[in-house]
Design brief:
single chain; 141 residues; alpha+beta; Alpha-Beta Plaits
Length: 141
């Protein structure tokens, strides 16, 4: 099951009631494609950085959801088809100015193996004279 985030801009011309209805419609659209909502953020009126469809303000709404097809053994192709259906219906909605759907990677926990602590064998002590002899051999003196 893949996690997604839908963020969309809604026309500022809507009343509070129409805004709620549009959000409910969007939620039912996602649920109709086999999606399960994780988080729904209330739309907030924002000033836009540039004009979108001749509007300088819009409502910003965000939904986090999981998507899988109705079949228990849903394939990635079925999920893509459901996502394509959602996008098609969002494009046809005239009150939605822009939208973006992001896939959120599942959080994975990395488990690293710790090195086992092997008992250290006691080393034999080396005399200083022996070290001196080895150094002379190596250096060729």
């Amino acid at each position: 099951m893949t996690q997604y985030q839908l963020t969309y801009l809604i026309s500022p011309d809507l009343s509070e009631r129409e805004l709620r209805e549009l959000q409910e419609k969007t939620i039912s659209l996602i649920q109709g494609e086999g999606g399960a909502l994780n988080e729904v953020r209330e739309p907030v009126r924002k000033k836009l950085a540039y004009l979108i469809k001749n509007r300088g303000e819009a409502y910003l709404a965000t939904l986090n959801f999981r998507l899988q097809s109705e079949k228990p053994d849903s394939s990635p192709a079925a999920t893509r088809k459901g996502l394509a259906n959602i996008e098609k219906k969002l494009k046809s909605e005239s009150q939605i100015l822009r939208y973006i759907i992001l896939s959120k990677p599942a959080k994975r926990i990395m488990v690293t193996a710790r090195p086992s602590k092997k008992p250290v064998s006691p080393k034999t002590k080396v005399e200083l004279k022996e070290i001196g002899k080895k150094l002379e051999e190596i250096l060729g003196e």
